[in-house]
Structure prediction request, 498 residues.
Amino acid sequence: MNSRLQHPAWPGLVKLSRVLARIALGLLFVFAGVTKAYDPGAFAIEVERYHLIPWMLGAFLSVYLPWLEILVGVLLLLKRFEQGALLLITCLLFVFTFALASATFRGLGIDCGCFGKTFATTGTIFPLVRNVLLLALTGFLWLDF
Amino acid sequence: MKLLLFLLCLFAGSAFGQLAWATTEQTFNSKPQDKEVVAKYKFTNNGTKPIKIQNVRTSCGCTTAALSKTEYAPGESGEIEAKFTFSGRTGKQEKAIMVATSASPEQPTILKLNVYIEETIKIEPEVVLWQVGEQASPKAIHIAIADDAPAKIVSVISDNPALKVKLTEVKPGKEYEAQIIPDSVAQPAAATVIIRTDYPPDNPQTKYAYARIK
Amino acid sequence: MGAFVRQAAWILLAALIPASLTAAFHPRRPVWSQETLAPGEEMLPTILSWEGSVLWVDARSADEYGAEHVPGAIPLNLESWDQLFPKFLDRWTPEKKVVVYCSATTCELSREVADRLRKSGISSVFVLKGGWEAWKNRK
Prediction:
């Protein structure tokens, strides 16, 4: 699956892009994991608001997911267990994208009349686009194997 | 090298660029006649990408939050104006405002608004109760005026002549005891004890206590 | 393909270690069961078993109460406390178990009304966990 373009600079550029993509993804996941690991309880409550999974599963994910993200990010940065890390990152990105898309298209329902004014979720488009770009990045790294 | 760093920033910008808040917790001391408190929370976009405020949620309907606009360019500042309406609440109140941004949609920032609403006039207990057939002895309601409030009790009366009120001053101008004396406890009865004050001068408060024979 | 899956499996397993430590010791870990009750809260099945001794109190807005409410429930909220509390007292006796509800689990009004009732000297005051939503979804 190697590129066969003839321009002399091309292989170098591709290699550089792969390194950048690997570092960017790795850092992103470590950062995402660390911010979630700080307050699992709050994350569990946020997951519950999406009304996609039962509470117990959300509670489990809130303590498990951050560490998985940190581990996967670190492994990517250190270039160890790269294949496993890449597979998991792809799966995680698909899951997050699905959850975001679901929230965008369903619209986050206001389930309690006593909540104050809420702004419509006009802004889930941005992280949704970002996730799709990240998936593209990940796909790019897959070409290495 | 510079190119590498720039590209890194571009990709990581959305993760590392967050809103920086001047303060996330504010505390106020208020009186019930203030009716509400307004707190402003200033923030700045510290990232390299524009940030959109997607969702602002409050912990109760008593607190509303307002924003002038939802999108902020890098370096731009804004503020969230939170208004907490007391609606008869007193004592220590802790309300929360949850702000979700495009920079971290799954992890909202929690802004806290704490208010100590002083109870100008304390009535303890609010309800005195006799069970039919028990001893018909008087029960006392204690009325206390907060130290720094220039309030005075004007009158304390019962709306039911079968349950009389005898008012004594425990501490001149500050503490009173209203004895509720039932004529008889053989039948169920109800009375509202109306406590009139002269404070605040433009709209004097009337407080209530209740006597019941059940 | 085998290497991908094998490595992924190891990573998934390895993450369980810090995860279990978090679950056991993290100061901000989530509660495991939503069945966990805060002090003063009760689940609907327990309350229904109390049958006739329950006095329902609706802490929601007048509009919501007017639309529909638990049969026999009395409206009571902080804004109209002075008007509504005497009416509550008329229906209340010391033997009753007072159960306050608002819209859903994530709503503060029922707790605030319950606290005020207890402060007034009313005994046996509870908050319905899950609120009106729990009542509507009961089987």
Observations:
- The CA atoms of residues 72 and 85 of chain A lie 5 Å apart.
- Chain A has a mean pLDDT of 74.
- The radius of gyration of chain A is 18 Å.
- Chain A has one domain: 13-142.
